[in-house]
Task: structure prediction
Amino acid sequence: MDATHVTPGAPSPEVQPATTCYRHPARESFIRCTRCERYICPDCMLDAPVGHQCPECVKEGHRSIRQARTVFGGRLIGTPYLTYLLIAVNVLVYVLELIRPGVVDRFDSLGQGVTGPDGLRYVVEDGLLPPGFQEVGIAHGEWYRLVTSGFLHLPATHGQFGILHILMNMYSLWLFGRVVEQQLGRVRMLALYLTGLLGGSVLGYLIAPQEAAVGASGAIFGLVATYFLMTRKMHHDPLGGGRQLVGAIIWLVASAGFTFWQGHLGGLLAGFAVGSVLVFAPRKGRALIQAAGVLAVLGLLTALVVVQTADLAGRSLWG
Result:
């Protein structure tokens, strides 16, 4: 039987402590994270370009990777979910209109109007409000009508258009919304859509506050204007932006006698204003400049509404 020979007076061999996983102290580990050099067990090992990394280092690495963006600063996206969501909202509201036909009559008054006990809109010619009737509209504090008007459409049995009103608008939203969303990103696209919608409502409130206003046309005209600007910068025009813009202007003029043309024109102007900032903002400080531009347009629209409301209130008060 052999015995280990120990030289008298020689120091005892040093015993190294066992190394353990930094996340699981009870597990012995011999492999380090190639980034932070902490010991990791097999359950904590994640493949890396070189060796293995711990979960924290992998998360940190993902955060440090810059996401690809378009020339307008938008994140690259695949499916244009926002466009589909906006179409779905418009269609759902239209279904509600079919179920409750009085919805349009109740909410189509934009600036000033009178509704009766039945919820329908009336014109009071002698200036005296009959019992049970009430004044409605933005001028009477119902600012939400600036937005709700953009999600209502003509009833299926109305006039020359009927259901064609929403079909044409939703087709245009599908056509332009997908391209604009994929280039600008969802946040910028939503800001553009709402600003175009508000631009149409505000111009209608300024020019024809007593007129009924329904339709997403203002928002869509805003998309057309911005798409045209995008094609000028990209030198690529898959939808024929120049022709589309000319067609939009021709329709704006031709339909002035039987549509809410103020909403179309207001959306077009707002789209050019916001689109100019979103499309041509310099790369340095681009997000801040774009946000400031959108806020500036919204501020201008708000100021116009405040001034018009005060003016209408003065007319109503003094006759």
Notes: Residues 18-49 form one domain. The chain has a mean pLDDT of 83.
